[in-house]
Model the fold of this input.
Amino acid sequence: MKKICLLIACLSLCAGLAAQTIKLPEPKKDATMTLYQALQQRASVRDFQKKEVSDQTLSDLLWAAVGINREDGRLTAPTAMNTQEVRLYVCKAEGCYEYVAKDNSLVKLSDKDVRKDIAGRQGSVADAPVFLVIVSDLTKYRFQDAKTAQFGAIDCGYVSQNICLACEALGLATVPRAGMDEAVLTKEFGLKEGQVLLINHPVGYEK
Done:
């Protein structure tokens, strides 16, 4: 009887863990807007409709931000020495997730809606249905010093630019921001020392 109860408990735990991972649709990679059109139209937007961003559109955006674009596992955004130290988090009303590029999925980390904590004093951006938060994971470098911190910040900048341009191509709006409640996000994301919050992007449809 004890073995049966233990088996049931294990199955329940596995089911719960599985429910925390969301497999996103395959990114389409077929936006018709050219790079130069996206550059021409790129603008910072801070007022958003409450209209939801579909899983398909989110998948397209996350792939453009820091997805895998080659069979060897390299990414759409360059990183110093191919360290791939950039981590991307997705925050929605239902909670916080980490984007996993290798299988194009979201792993749920928290049930807390942290959008207001990210928005801070810029209350209007809290209406965005999605926030993307870019973290530099300096623990992936063999040595952690001022130079690697600089590399990490530069690499996060590449991802931020990818987000800006992909939003234009997908008909979305965004703005890169640095302000956010780092204590709240560190807790909800489960960040450790050396994993640095750098940039956030509210993402949605312009009012």
Confidence is low (pLDDT under 50) at residues 2-18. The beta strands are 21-23, 86-92, 95-100, 105-110, 130-137, 173-174, 195-204. The CA atoms of residues 68 and 74 lie 6 Å apart. DSSP finds six helices and seven strands in the chain.
